[in-house]
Design a protein that fits this description.
Layout: H1 2-21, H2 38-67, H3 72-85, H4 100-110, H5 125-162
Length: 163
């Protein structure tokens, strides 16, 4: 290790002196002018085309996602119309002619499409306030548990320090 350091020191010292002896001076490097390759332009066009296709697919996906959601206002209006129409329903009992097993299979098939989701507005300040209260409560409960453990640890350390 010492030998390596000495060699590095001699190398630096003598190389600098030898360059001075021959009157060597550093010149600015001359960089060749860069020519634009045709390949890079083709890649950029390909990326733009790919980005365009991805954007179109995302738009289509978002349109398809919205089709599966049910507007609760429309659902409420339909329910209200049905309640008012109940008074005009027939007096006799309707009997189903569908097999129960077939009905059960159909319900299982369409069940994922029947889920109702309510979208929340992430910009709504009430949601953020509720989240802050939940986080505060979580911190307070964790602090109570941790404080007891830390107090016990402090007492044990104080006892061992006195010994």
């Amino acid at each position: 290790m010492v030998m390596e350091n000495q060699c590095a020191m001699f190398h630096a010292l003598f190389s600098g002196r030898s360059l001075k002896n021959i009157s060597f001076s550093w010149k600015r490097p001359a960089y060749p002018a860069e020519e634009q390759d045709d390949e890079t332009v083709v890649e950029d066009d390909a990326e733009l085309t790919l980005n365009k296709i991805e954007d179109e697919n995302c738009k289509e996906d978002s349109d398809n996602d919205e089709e599966h959601f049910i507007d609760l206002n429309v659902l409420t209006a339909q329910n209200h119309k049905m309640n008012t129409a109940e008074s005009s329903k027939p007096e006799e009992i309707l009997e189903s002619k569908t097999d129960a097993a077939e009905w059960y299979l159909e319900v299982e098939r369409v069940l994922p499409q029947l889920k109702v989701t309510v979208r929340t507005d992430n910009k709504d300040w009430r949601i953020h306030v509720d989240q802050m209260h939940q986080n505060k409560d979580g911190i307070e409960t964790s602090f109570k548990e941790t404080k007891g453990i830390l107090d016990k640890l402090q007492n044990e350390m104080a006892r061992h320090g006195e010994s």
